Amino acid sequence: MSQTGHQALAEAVRQLAAAGVPDAAGDALALLSFALGVPRHSVRGELSQPLSAQAQLAFAAAIGSRAARQPVSQILGWREFWKHRFRVTPDTLDPRPETETLVAAALKLPWDSVLDLGTGTGAILLSLLAERPGARGLGVDMSQAALNVAQDNARALGITADFRRSDWFSGVQGRFGLIVSNPPYIALDEMAALSPEVREWEPRAALTDEGDGLGAYRAIVAGAGAHLLPKGWLAVEIGPTQGAAVTGLMAASGFRRIALRSDLDGRDRVVMGQFGP
Predict the structure, then answer these.
(1) Helix axes 215-224, 243-252, angle to 10 degrees
(2) Measured between alpha carbons, how far is 121 from 137 in angstroms, rounded to an integer?
(3) Is 168 annotated to bind ligand?
(4) Which residues form the Methyltransferase small domain (predicted)?
(5) Is there a binding annotation on residue 119?
(6) Cβ 167 vs Cβ 215: under 8 Å
């Protein structure tokens, strides 16, 4: 039986709320927009009309996926980040608004070459390169599936970047003016408290080091000096409680002018430092 948009939306909100989805109404509206193939602001004008069979099936499938706690971005297949839309899949970490703090901080630094460690969707690297014409960039990741997504994003955005499979610096040659990373920083004992959207749907290796959450920073800080140009910069995203620990790691490895940057919620989010005397 054909439903109007109003009826389908109301039923979807009830289904998502029963599944424990935090913003059931907002997510249902976004997914109805997706099923109808219209911008979100146009959905309300469609609500009094019967849904086509195709739209009804697409909406039901999307709501079923969301009720299983799959992130909206994975259902849509994309996420807005900085100034662009990036393709996302279950093989990549979902680019988050707080990571834009890292992009903003990096763009205030002097560099014309950048290495992105654990590039995932390529969102950080490609956002930086789009703002710095003529700069060169390399994104590395352990996951070939993630690299494929990053390459797709680079092509879709028309941004030139290189991508390579590498476990941190193992496949990296040469030196860069800037190294950036949003590494796995969630401690193993914190994983159980994550939302199902994160814990069950995003790649585990991009979330946790299976230890104290600082393992990636130890590897990055230890190897960064050999891959930075003189007076080059390292900038990393951190968890809100990790500022002192990561600052200490940088200071012990020869970084100076170390600084913390906060996200829009006022939480420590980025540690950056310049290498060398």
Answers:
(1) 30
(2) 14
(3) yes
(4) 110-187
(5) yes
(6) no
Beta bridge partners of 117: 140, 181
Q: State yes or no: 182 annotated in a binding site.
A: yes
Q: Does the pLDDT of residue 1 top 70, yes or no? A: no
The annotation status of 22 as a binding-site residue, yes or no, is no
Residue 28: Cβ within 10 Å count: 26
141 is in an annotated binding site: yes
pLDDT tens profile 99-148: 999 999 999 999 999 999 999 999 999 999 999 999 999 999 999 999 99
Instruction: Answer yes or no: is 118 a known binding residue.
Output: yes
Mean pLDDT, rounded, of the chain? 96
- Strand-pairing partners, residue 114, are 137, 178
Sign of CA dihedral 199, 201, 203, 206: negative
228-237 vs 176-181, strand pairing mode: parallel
Angstrom distance (rounded) from CA 136 to CA 126: 10
Q: Which amino acid is at 128?
A: L
Predicted confidence (pLDDT) per residue in 202-245, tens digit: 999 999 999 999 999 999 999 999 999 999 999 999 999 999 99
Q: What is the DSSP string of 215-255?
A: HHHHHHHHHHGGGEEEEEEEEEE--TT-HHHHHHHHHHTTE
- Residues across the chain: 277
120 is annotated as contributing to ligand binding: yes
